[in-house]
Amino acid sequence: MIVVASCHPTPDDERIYHRQIKTLLSNGYSITYFSRSKSDLDLSEAGLKHINLSINLSIRSYSKQVLQQLKEPEAPLFFHIHEPELLPLAKSVKQRFNARIIYDVHENLDAMYRTFSQRSKPVKETAIFLRNANEKRHLRFVDRVVLANQPLKTTVYNSQEFQPIVLENFPENKYISNVANDGNRGSSIIYHGNLAPERGIGDLVAALPAVISEIPDAYLTLLGSFRTAGFESQLKRFISENKLYDQVHVNDQIPHESIWAILNNHAVGIIPFRDNPLTKHNTPTKLFEMMAAGCRIVASDLPPIRNFVPATVHWSTPGDISSIAGNIIEAFHSLNQSSWIEENRNLVREKYNWELIRHRLITLYEQLLN
Predict the structure, then answer these.
(1) Per-residue model confidence (pLDDT) at position 153
(2) What DSSP line would sit under 95-120, residue for residue?
(3) CA 198 to CA 302: how far, in whole Å?
(4) In contact, 180 and 219? CB cutoff 8 Å
């Protein structure tokens, strides 16, 4: 039996549930999936037992409850975790059941801390050192490491001789759209994902007046959750002060399977990230989703994005409001030239889809089994 554990706030996460769990189910594995969220979603089906615990539980309490629910007659053969906070739980499961431990690393954790922490650099680097030391202590209980991003340099996991496998967050082939994008989608712009300053969302909204001066019916859809209440207040105040209520539509995060119809109705997809440690190391999943949906793409010129699409994106300078505005305008003026859109769809069809890499996940489990 496989046990998957995550403290991610969304049980139907596209990586954990839609890609990995569904792939394992289709290959005949039996899975118990522990999540920690405020959702009342029950994903249980034949072969899958979903147990959702309260988001109000601390990680320690959540881990304790997961461990209590694992019983010897149905001892896990595999224990697959998706957050570093669950490494102590993985250690306990290893010691009690001798399970094979899979550690799935979704993002560059050092880069995240360097981006989000407001502490001074010496304090920040000390905290990173201590976090890494704690992680390394637990890595001896881990059998395999999975990465969501192709590393641009050697990782600590390579130095620990793990030879991690990379499972990028590529979309499934079924989501590659044939919906035209030749002006029929209106003057619509979309960003979906985390709404936060390091993602350049403030820069994007600030660029909109210049876009509207050139394209009067342009409008922006922001779809996702705000990382902080302070940034939400700041952004909505800017929208109000600049009378952009009719041009900027802010919507809450929606189930992942619902995003495709929305993307297929928007002409320009935008990734306005600022230049920071996080965006220099992590490839945005939304890039491949926008490509599959046939959106014209405006993106900040950053290594992880350029690594996948060097020539078929309108590149903006990170943090440069006028560059963002100019490239959005250029994208709209280029809608009658469909070659980039088709090239991006073909890249997903031929290189960047889940079906081409899902065998890596199955092979990983088979290798551990043998």
Answers:
(1) 56
(2) HHH-PEEEEEE-S-HHHHHHHH--S-
(3) 13
(4) no
